[in-house]
TrEMBL record, chains A, B:
Entry keyword set: FAD, Fatty acid metabolism, Flavoprotein, Lipid metabolism, Oxidoreductase, Peroxisome
Matching InterPro entries: ACOX_C_alpha1 (IPR055060), Acyl-CoA_Oxase/DH_mid-dom (IPR006091), Acyl-CoA_Oxase/DH_mid-dom_sf (IPR046373), Acyl-CoA_oxidase (IPR012258), Acyl-CoA_oxidase_C (IPR002655), AcylCo_DH-like_C (IPR036250), AcylCoA_DH/ox_N (IPR013786), AcylCoA_DH/ox_N_sf (IPR037069)
The organism of origin for this protein: Neolewinella agarilytica
Residues annotated as domain Acyl-CoA oxidase/dehydrogenase middle: 287-395
Signal peptide interval: none
PANTHER family: ELECTRON TRANSPORT OXIDOREDUCTASE
Protein name, UniProt field: acyl-CoA oxidase
Length: 774, 774
């Protein structure tokens, strides 16, 4: 027998036509009588078998002699090869595969085509004669078809409808979100990660321009400037942009949220009239020049000065040193103008940080005299955003360019402000910019949700081939380890989103008194959500192995682009310390206001905690009903938050009593502060998630699944802190183990819902993009 | 007063000359009598002060009226600005700054230069008259100088010499390492991350070619092929390449380690003679075509076939389906040849997986008939490596191309092998390729060490400016939170390196009986070290904030390039399950061999553990001496490893007794398996680190610091697992808290050594590259 034949096998055409049937008959590793008889009886009368073939068939249908592993594998391989020649959207029959294989064994000779097509009926009869062919047999032969089917099935088998989940998440912003998704699926938004930064930046600029023309950028502006005065809709749009490309999202945020936001919130009517309409359409690209090289997290210490010259009624904007250059300014290369934050000096006296509009470039896009702009170069990600450094050398602008909502200069050349206290003035100004911290984590969540949708959908369609081809293949997400990796993250994504939604509502409906609380929440949730984003995308990349490393599958850009989210709009560790300081001041205030009574009340609360929660029975209670009860996990979250804050206060006090200054004491307690802040955010996220699910009502189609997600979020979080809970005698060792098992069980129970849960994020396939997820 | 003057201030020249002194006098926020007198007395006679100036000075030296915060800050800013005009390598005196400022206030008029220089002596006298100026005052004015000085000081203040640490790490391979570093610092190796993959690949190819010509690629080959027969030196060289560029490192590994290794280890003399010399010089680029799209982690199930045709004495290599294409093959676009792994079929019988050398391209670099190669496209990282997919359509090669060390075809056309058992034959072949798993984690560690060196050095030179300019500025690494982030990682880098060094020695001196153990160690250490790499680089990126996001500071590429290390050369989670299986078989074997006695012995050991370690006193013991004693932490590591393995065995047994098949039982215990494997690796790393430090002896200059590193590694690891230890009643809550404090203390104690520890990695500044670290 020569080796030169189609499909590279040593079989005759007749035998080859029979292989799919033989494969099916042997797939459970033993032949039953019915199968033997069907094959042997039919073999005698089949026109395409010669005597040698019949002898081989007799041998291969001998129940005492199952085929060798390698032989069996070859049958499978050949069947698959034949299956690849069929349309991908349907599974063929074994008979059809037989026809293809028989014809192929004859070199696909044209004159033999009809002959083989004619054999379909007898082969089909034989296939039916075999009786029930196991589904795994078909799966072995039709992997591609099966992957698609499996994913659809996985979503169908869920008890919850993705559309209902999406309606819950989108809420009242569903209209805006749908509108943005429609725009993003236009041909002009075809994703294209151009490797050379200048090209990529041009593309991103064009995308932002189109969004501006569609009115998306102006959503938060007043109606007279082309907007809808709807900050909530702006945030929802921003979040939706995160499903497309994060460079575009961030550049959009710089242009409309930061530059536009500075003009809108720090400027007065003359600035609005002059700049806002053009800004909203991106006819006037602008940037937000706050951060300086020497002052990352310390806005108050900015060194750039704006000195008022009363003779000419001008402000002289100047960078007094190299380190006073504006650093990492987004949109710096494309901008015509900048809102420059500087120390305002009037009559030789510094009035603290104010923002001044400074033109950067002329109509031909040449930088104006006194302006120096330097490209920040390539970055880890977001290379579609044109970040740069900017220096000013005694640049004169009219005094009208001062954004003077909170402090201005009169015609007589004197400074005036409604807020006399410079410190309060400064923080009021900064407070108007907290919108960035409300929005950024939402875009981060879009990146995390995209990654989770890709990894979970891949986990549902991809099967791991067992070393032994006769063994059933396992869907990746059926591996407990994969469930553990991904499903708690999906649950946490829902919970965190609920927390962020609450923040957004509070921010949209804010009053001045709320601001301190909102700022603390924004700082905490921004950090929590962006740390989650980084961790979730990394886990998804690793869970999808080498496939996840290919850029086409999107983790590369999701990871690289979102990595800076933990740093910009405030470094997370710095923000968390601000949250802790706010917690401490609340804590102290409640003591101060109520005097000793508060102390007693607080101690009383602790006593109650100890009696009801930390008694020997409760800390050992392990039944599932208890563990998944709100009474257990909500108390556990609150206990942790309360305890970490009060011990923090005690520690700080002890250090200070011991003669340490408060700065040094704060340093010593830095990790404790971050932990207390995290506990506060977690308690907030849990509380708001529970409220959100409660508000749906028990009859809502998503109630049961979302409740389970919140339970999983809660128990998985407690599990993560089990060292602390054990240390604090809040749970005993047996309870800690029981929590781990409860998490396992919840993961397994949510496994059939996983496909629906990630589809509930509502990311259109076109935006999801990754081939491994489609 | 007009506003148009140099340095943008409202001060007269005379006052401006005095500002540095005023700044210094007020730097501690109150004036003492000596300072007041010095300023007021001198002011009367200074030639550059007019009457107005003198009045201002009187006012500003009034102890009852300290300067406004903004004014004081302006003085500092101006002082710094002046300082920037001085050479960067020295701190000037306050008097010098006064001269610069005075002259600048007059617009730097040339005819006034001499006048101001002449004022130096009086100003100097005044400066001396102020008495001791605080160092922080100078720091406030000379940030750049101070950064440099600080870094140098930090390394000088260490008790350990970086060179001594480097000598320990480099060990007997110091010569090879130095040689490779010399090559990498040549101008031809200038780092250049070209954005377009084709350009970058060409550059990386040229680098590899130069390394080949220098004999680095051939180090592991026999001397007759240009090598030194030194696998250890090869591994050390590979690790050193990781300090330059990881694309180059991986491509180097593919060419010399995988392609060269396949020829050397699976081929016989005729292959060596034909290919090795050219391979070592990269005159013959080759690739290693094992993985298939459909078979990521299952080499045994490869579908590519090589059918022997006795008539022509040829092998016909064929990819029977799209999914049987070779996937992610490094060097695929540049290679002339490939070692193709396929099912060898002789006389119609499959003989299992073998490797065959198949030419891919002709001299003009056109692919040969039957060969199809597709570029894998852009990846998350390593875009300088040309990965591709390869399919074969009935490609005929002479039978001599079979790499036949473990199985060949005789002249008569029959298959023969010294290893009759096909399964043993397969694993023996695979075993020869374990070198990849020995080397890859070493390159990963180089990436982690680079990141740590950059972040720690940045943390030592960068000061965080306090919100209040009068407060002392803090070196970033003095923040406890930064110490917590970075120093345990530095300690772990040392410990992990010691573990990897042990593995390398065992691998270099291996005998056949050792192979199973070495394979388990390699699988475990590869996973442990590469997971560490990913986590460490991420932490370093976040610890350096926005600076760390700039590509010039290297985290971008370190992160992206090393991210796949957890997946290639075996997915970490799969490898860890292999490790666990090996642990289980050791466990079972010891039971089997010694019968009940072993069980008793094991139980006895457990009883002893319980008596000596888990008694109520021991689990609560918190004194530092105990916690940092080897007796405590080594026992804790061993206990965890032993306990996790034995409970794993018990759980599996219980499932199987309950009627579950072993596959399903394994699935259920997947996370437990990974945990047991990790505990085994950690115990190994600790044991080998302790041995390494012991071997140095107490008088070795690095002994004390390295011992402390190992202690920190140990306690930080236990702290990470504190939930488990608490659950297992191995430690009580108070002890867990004490461990946390001990970690804090060790971090603080190692803080002065941190600069020396990262310099001990021996990464030349030129290779480190990051501007923030230099």
């Amino acid at each position: 027998m020569g080796a030169e034949f189609q499909m590279n096998t040593q079989f005759s055409a007749g035998i080859q036509a029979m292989l799919p049937l033989l494969y099916a008959a042997w797939a459970d590793r033993h032949l039953n009588l019915k199968e033997i008889n069907a094959i042997r009886k039919r073999a005698a009368s089949l026109p395409f078998l010669d005597e040698t073939d019949k002898a081989v068939l007799l041998e291969w249908s001998d129940p005492a002699r199952p085929p060798e592993r390698e032989l069996f594998q070859q049958w499978q391989t050949m069947g698959r090869n034949a299956a690849e020649q069929l349309p991908e959207d349907r599974a063929a029959s074994l008979a059809e595969l037989g026809v293809i294989l028989g014809h192929a064994a004859e070199g696909n000779a044209e004159d033999r085509q009809q002959f083989w097509v004619d054999q379909l009926p007898v082969l089909t009869e034989l296939e039916l004669g075999l009786g029930g062919v196991e589904e795994t047999t078909y799966r072995g032969l039709f992997p591609l078809y099966d992957q698609r089917k499996k994913l659809t099935e996985s979503i169908e088998e869920a008890t919850v409808d993705p559309a209902a989940l999406q309606a819950v998440l989108d809420g009242k912003y569903a209209g805006t979100i749908a509108r943005v998704k429609e725009i993003l699926q236009r041909p002009s938004f075809e994703r294209n990660m151009l490797p050379v930064k200048e090209d990529f930046r041009e593309l991103v600029l064009a995308w932002c321009k189109e969004l501006g023309e569609e009115g998306i950028g102006a959503l938060a502006f007043d109606e007279e400037y082309g907007g809808e005065d709807d900050m909530g809709a702006y945030a929802a749009a921003f979040e939706t942009l995160g499903y497309h490309d994060l460079s575009m999202t961030i550049k959009f945020g710089v242009q409309f949220g930061l530059w536009g936001g500075a003009v809108a919130n720090l400027g007065t009517k003359r600035h609005h009239d002059k700049y806002l309409t053009a800004t909203g359409k991106l006819d006037l690209p602008g940037c937000f020049a706050m951060t300086e090289t020497g002052h990352g997290s310390n806005v108050r210490g900015l060194e750039t000065t704006a000195v008022y010259d009363h003779d000419t009624k001008e402000l002289i904007v100047h960078s007094p040193s190299v380190g006073a250059g504006k650093e990492y300014i987004g949109n710096a290369m494309h901008s015509k103008m900048a809102a420059v934050f500087c120390q305002l000096i009037v009559g030789g006296e510094s009035k603290g940080v104010h923002a001044v509009v400074v033109p950067l470039r002329d109509a031909e896009h040449n930088t104006l005299p006194g302006i120096r702009v330097e490209d920040n170069g390539y970055k880890l990600g977001l290379n579609g955003v044109d970040n740069g450094r900017i220096w000013f050398t005694r640049v004169r602008v009219p005094v009208e360019n001062l954004l003077d909502k909170f402090g201005g200069i009169s015609a007589e050349g004197t400074y005036h402000s409604e807020i006399e206290n410079p410190s309060r003035r400064f923080f009021t100004m900064l407070g108007t910019l907290v919108g960035g911290r409300v929005c950024v984590p939402r875009a981060g969540m879009s990146a995390a949700k995209s990654a989770l949708a890709i990894a979970v959908r891949y986990g549902l369609r991809r099967r791991q081939f067992a070393a032994d081809p006769l063994k059933a293949e396992t869907i990746i997400l059926d591996y407990p380890n994969q469930q553990r990796r991904l499903i708690p993250l999906v649950a946490k994504a829902y919970a965190t989103q609920f927390g962020l939604d609450y923040l957004l509502e509070r921010y949209v409906n804010r009053s001045e008194e709320d601001m301190r609380e909102i700022e603390a929440m924004a700082a905490g949730l921004k950090s929590y959500a962006t740390w989650f984003t980084t961790a979730a995308i990394q886990e998804c990349r690793e869970a999808t192995g080498g496939k996840g490393y290919l850029r086409e599958n999107r983790f590369a850009d999701l990871k690289a682009d979102s990595d800076i989210f933990t740093t910009f709009e405030g470094d997370n560790t710095v923000l968390m310390q601000l949250v802790a300081k706010s917690l401490l001041s609340d804590f102290k205030k409640s003591f101060k206001e109520d005097g000793n009574f508060a102390v007693l009340k607080y101690m009383g609360r602790r006593m109650t905690t100890i009696v009801t929660e930390q008694n020997p029975i409760s800390i050992r209670q392990t039944d599932r009903e208890h563990l998944t009860s709100r009474a257990f996990y909500q108390s556990a979250f609150e206990f942790r938050s309360r305890r970490l804050t009060s011990t923090l206060a005690q520690r700080l006090q002890a250090y200070i009593k011991g003669g340490m200054n408060s700065y040094e004491a704060g340093l010593r307690c830095q990790t404790h502060m971050i932990e207390a802040a995290e506990a506060y955010v977690e308690a907030l996220v849990l509380e708001k998630s529970l409220e959100r699910v409660d508000a749906l009502g028990k009859n809502h189609p998503t109630y049961a699944v979302l409740k389970k997600c919140v339970q999983l979020y809660a128990l998985h979080t407690i599990e993560g802190h089990r060292g602390w809970y054990l240390e604090s005698d809040y749970i005993a060792g047996n309870k800690s183990k029981a929590i781990r098992k409860a998490v396992d069980v919840l993961c397994a129970e949510l496994r059939p819902e996983a496909g629906a849960l990630v589809n509930g994020f509502g990311i259109p396939d076109k935006l999801l993009g990754a081939p491994i997820a489609l």
